[in-house]
Amino acid sequence: DIEYIVKNELLKRHITITEFASRLGEPRQNTSSKLKRINSKLSDLEKFADVLDCDLSITFIPRTRETSDK
After folding, report:
1. Cα 29 to chain center, whole Å?
2. CB-facing half-sphere around the CA of 2: CA atoms within 13 A
3. Does the first or last residue of the chain, that is N or C, have fewer Cβ atoms within 10 Å of its Cβ?
4. Closest Cα to residue 26, out of 47, 49, 53, 5?
5. How far is Cα 2 from Cα 35, in angstroms, rounded to an integer?
6. pLDDT given at position 39
7. pLDDT of residue 23
8. Do 35 and 47 meet the contact criterion of CB atoms below 8 Å apart?
9. Distance, CA of 1 to CA of 23 (rounded, Å)
10. Contacts of 55 by beta carbon, 8 Å cutoff, 6+ apart
């Protein structure tokens, strides 16, 4: 999920959630809430990626369907 991915990136960069929130220009509690929500806005994800110096990639991957042609 998004929270895990972002927190993992923060750990890799030795950035605390407080520092991350500061770089985003918002209170720590707001950032924590955004990370916990499943439906983060695209604009939030873009900001997260920017602060982490990452590209944001959202991919639609076709689901495989088992079809039985017997």
Report:
1. 16
2. 20
3. C
4. 47
5. 7
6. 58
7. 94
8. no
9. 22
10. 49
Contacts for 20 with CB less than 8 Å, ≥ 6 apart = 10, 31, 51
The secondary structure of the chain as a DSSP string is -HHHHHHHHHHHTT--HHHHHHHHTS-HHHHHHHHH-TT--HHHHHHHHHHTT--------PPP------
Question: In this structure, what token pair is assigned to residue 50?
Answer: 């920017």
User: Computed from CA positions of residues 20, 21, 22, 24, in that sequence, does the dihedral angle turn out positive or negative?
Assistant: positive
**pTM for this model (two decimals):** 0.64
Q: Which residue, chain included where needed, has tokens 């994800």?
A: 45
Of 58 and 60, the one with more pLDDT: 58
| Residues, the chain | 70
Look at the block and give the residue holding tokens 């959630």.
17
